[in-house]
Specification:
The two termini are about 30 Å apart. The strands form 2 sheets. The protein has a 3-stranded antiparallel sheet with strand order 3-4-5, with no helix packed on it. A hairpin with a 2-residue loop joins strand 3 and strand 4. With about 170 residues, the chain is of the alpha+beta class. The protein has 2 domains: about 100 residues, no CATH class; about 60 residues, no CATH class. The longest helix has 13 residues. The structure holds flavin-adenine dinucleotide. The site of flavin-adenine dinucleotide has 12 residues, from strand 3.
Length: about 170
């Protein structure tokens, strides 16, 4: 479903974001974008431009909205065709960019079809997670020495409707 659009945000948005969020100023995030665009995460112009997308840009321009030729450039407020995260015309995901190259690391284990039910907290510190595989009634644990990174997406995303445990937890 993800359309592969790659936008680093406008200068205005970045200023707003930086106001209450130390570490998110353009000076902070720009080197990270530059690193990923140069290596792990390729950017490309949309290979198939829909006739309506081009008509939309022309209409906006005719209405006086400036055309931004580089939507990830410094001065990118306006209308334009957004670049996409693709390599050789195919979707390029964070799995391609970051997970696949790390798959052979001895300290990486990927567990699929597993639902995390809770974070294990001992002495006030997160020390791992409890999870259960799809058909497994018994809970497993994954423990860590350093930190637990929660990256379970937005609250109330569609998974919850297909996942009874999450739906129950919300109630
Ligand atoms: C229709 C649509 C189009 C989009 N198009 C674009 C686009 O073109 N460009 C762009 O940059 N962004 C786009 N986005 C936004 C982008 O997809 C999200 O911002 C991004 O996927 C968020 O990544 P994430 O890793 O934070 O979370 P997610 O990708 O949501 O990943 C979270 C994962 O955690 C899993 N999870 C949740 N709870 C548990 C649990 N208890 N145990 C185990 N696993 C759990 C979920 O199943 C999911 O796989 C789009 C989003 C949508 C919905």
């Amino acid at each position: 479903m993800n359309a592969m659009m790659f936008s680093e945000g406008t200068l205005g948005l970045r200023r707003v974001a930086a106001r209450g969020c130390p570490g998110w100023s353009w000076a902070d995030v720009e080197p990270v974008f530059a690193r990923s665009a140069a290596g792990a995460f390729p950017l490309a112009d949309l290979p198939d431009r829909h006739v309506l997308a081009e008509a939309f840009v022309h209409s906006a321009e005719a209405a006086g909205i400036p055309v931004a030729t580089d939507l990830n450039g410094e001065n990118n407020e306006g209308v334009g065709l957004v670049p996409v995260s693709q390599r050789r015309g195919r979707r390029f995901s964070v799995v391609d960019g970051y997970l696949r190259p790390a798959r052979r690391r001895p300290n990486l284990t990927v567990v699929t079809d597993a639902l995390v039910s809770r974070i294990l907290v001992e002495d006030g510190k997160a020390v791992g997670v409890a999870f259960r595989n799809e058909d497994d009634a018994v809970e497993d644990e994954a423990r860590c020495n350093r930190e637990v990174v929660v990256c379970a997406g937005a609250v109330d995303r569609p998974i919850s409707s297909s996942c009874p445990e999450l739906a129950r937890a919300r109630r």
